[in-house]
Amino acid sequence: MHVHAVCPLSMNLLIITAASLVALTRAGGALQDLEFQKWKLMYGRSYNSPEEEARRKLTWLDNYRSILVHNVQADQGLRTYRLGLNQFADMNKQEYRKTHRLLTNSTKVHHGTEFTRRKWRGELPDAVDWRKTGCVSAVQDQGGCNSALAFGFVGALECQNFLETGVLAALSVQQLIDCCWACIRASVPMYVECIQSYGGIDTEESYPFEGTPGDCRFNPKTIGGTCSGYALMTPGNEDALQEAVALVGPVIAFIDASHPSFQFYQSGVYYEPNCSSTEVDHVVLVVGYGQEDGQDYWLVKNSWGTFWGEKGYMKMARNRSNMCGIASDAGCPKA
Length: 335
Hints:
Layout: H1 8-26, H2 29-43, H3 50-75, E1 81-83, H4 93-100, E2 113-114, E3 128-129, H5 148-165, H6 173-179, H7 188-198, E4 201-202, E5 223-225, E6 229-232, H8 238-247, E7 251-255, H9 260-263, E8 265-270, E9 282-292, E10 295-301, E11 313-317, E12 331-334
Parallel strand pairs: 2-6, 8-11
Antiparallel strand pairs: 1-8, 3-9, 4-5, 6-12, 7-9, 9-10, 10-11
Helix pairs in contact: 1-3
Domain Cathepsin propeptide inhibitor: 36-96
Family: Belongs to the peptidase C1 family.
GO molecular function: cysteine-type peptidase activity
């Protein structure tokens, strides 16, 4: 008879998870009902029928329990990040992926000029945060429009124009939605060509975000920035990505965001061993990097509002074999 050894960490994980589930099973339903009603009020959620509410509540409870179990493990030092209830809490995994699965192969970047790594004589900074320079605009919520690429592109372009002019002008994502079809068939080459065809991109103030496509209302008198091209990073090379973020500015990154751990991320250094480095479905803006509790991370800006993550930001594990494809298809527009 063969006896298989059990990893102590795995055993601890099983014990903690089982204990948490027992505690949750014993918890009164009244408290969970109250939490669900508080969540509905916070996110302005209402449903078309009692049946739909009952179904959504069951999904919410499943997510609620999974989050609690994960956070017990985080409290024990078995996870490097915490989860929390957010606007996706009444969605199951399939619904979340359908709603926020943004990309097709045509969306990914297939051409652009190659980013030339500089002959940097000194050491790169241990930590970078472009927010501290004033070239990163406020986090927004893309809502139901599949405009993550537009938000990432505009965010990177804002900083490049800031470095050229010394003035931060928040640029119009809505122009890309209305004039460049950002909700329908977005791509980096399309954005570059579209902005160049108009002679620039308007400011957010003059052309504010609405979240749904409408008539193109570009105004050449309120241009806030221009785009001359796009530079690609070396695929899969986190060292090249670090150099670009340190020396050039915020970088657009295509990532795998399909997992419940990403859906409910709240704080800490996100590490998801099941993440794919090739099957990517979302876009974020890498605005820095650093280290927390001995864990290297990328600081990324998302476009799901400030209730998600750390006020709209995430720390993604860095130097962990290109986790989630953070460096697989990264690049930066040029002012």
